[in-house]
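Incident log, support desk, overnight shift.

02:14 A customer reports that sequence design results differ from what the structure should imply. Their input is reproduced verbatim below. On-call engineer (initials T.W.) acknowledged and began investigating.
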């Protein structure tokens, strides 16, 4: 089993601690959090070993799970990597694209692996949809959340939209050609609502909307491709596939048939792929353990995390244009 320590014991850090404790792939050694009062209280209540500082934690583990505020990602990850430790780092990978590139270089130099916590890649609805999504040409994503003060230290693009950016980049096998975007600050000092239109070199277009001041929660994406439409509900964990195929000569009475202006008839078929229930956070942590053990590329590599960050930063930069 890999010895793991958690850096950061906030809301998400507590979840990681609990899941790592029950994982069959890790031995949870302990955690460190500079908020002494919170850390000591958690240690006493849950029984996790509390390290006095980050260096002590690093010395006792194989893997460091970094669940700190984004501003602290680079310096803490750099220290872990330079000590020869594998890192799981929450999204976004770092605060700047330059920091991400430096971290990637350091990981290669010290021959350690890193994975970025883009948890929606492990959402069972998204997993079920992947085999059905082939060369999408138009994508629409809506990620709306009720207001929560936690996370407002960064723009909504880095807080919410980056989930959809990463998911889309994993499916569209083409480089980004252009980005148009707008953002509005309503409650926070940084934009709370944002919309981005990403055009890829293969002419695929993705239209993304994110809000953290919505009256209801929504996490839906729709993928349009030739003869098919795929809908993914990340929140409700549902996937629907609508396909169009050439209509048979003698369709049954209940068949849904469409006919275009040229007289071509298509029959519509509805599919609901099986959704395998899972704990997405536990899955992302355990697949990272397997990548380390088997010396394979993590499902969400540092390079992919860096690319998602680059696109997110381009969207934020486009707000002023």
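02:41 Re-run completed on a clean worker. Output:
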């Amino acid at each position: 089993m890999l010895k793991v320590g958690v850096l950061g014991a906030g809301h998400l850090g507590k979840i990681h601690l609990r899941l790592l404790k029950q994982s069959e792939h890790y031995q949870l050694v302990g955690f460190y959090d500079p908020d002494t009062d919170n850390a000591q209280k958690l240690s006493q209540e849950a029984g996790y070993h509390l390290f006095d500082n980050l260096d002590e934690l690093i010395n006792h583990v194989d893997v460091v799970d970094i669940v700190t505020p984004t501003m602290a990602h680079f310096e803490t990850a750099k220290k872990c990597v330079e000590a020869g430790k594998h890192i799981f780092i929450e999204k976004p990978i770092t605060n700047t694209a330059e920091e991400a590139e430096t971290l990637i270089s350091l990981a290669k130099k010290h021959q350690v692996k890193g994975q970025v916590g883009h948890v929606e890649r492990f959402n069972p609805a998204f997993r079920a949809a992947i085999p059905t999504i082939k060369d999408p040409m138009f994508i629409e994503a809506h990620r709306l959340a009720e207001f929560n003060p936690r996370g407002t230290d960064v723009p909504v693009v880095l807080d919410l939209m980056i989930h959809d950016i990463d998911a889309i980049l994993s499916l569209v096998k083409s480089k980004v050609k252009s980005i148009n975007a707008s953002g509005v600050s309503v409650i926070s000092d940084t934009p709370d609502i944002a919309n981005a239109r990403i055009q890829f070199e293969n002419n695929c277009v993705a239209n993304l909307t994110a809000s953290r001041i919505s009256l209801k929660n929504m996490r839906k994406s729709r993928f349009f491709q030739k003869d098919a439409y795929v809908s993914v509900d990340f929140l409700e964990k549902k996937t629907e596939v609508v396909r169009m195929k050439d209509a048979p000569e003698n369709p049954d009475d209940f068949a849904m048939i469409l006919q275009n202006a040229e007289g071509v008839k298509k029959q519509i078929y509805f599919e609901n792929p099986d959704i395998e229930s899972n704990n997405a956070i536990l899955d992302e942590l355990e697949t990272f353990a397997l990548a380390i053990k088997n010396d394979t590329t993590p499902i969400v590599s540092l390079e992919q995390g860096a690319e998602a960050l680059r696109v997110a930063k381009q969207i934020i930069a486009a707000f002023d244009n």
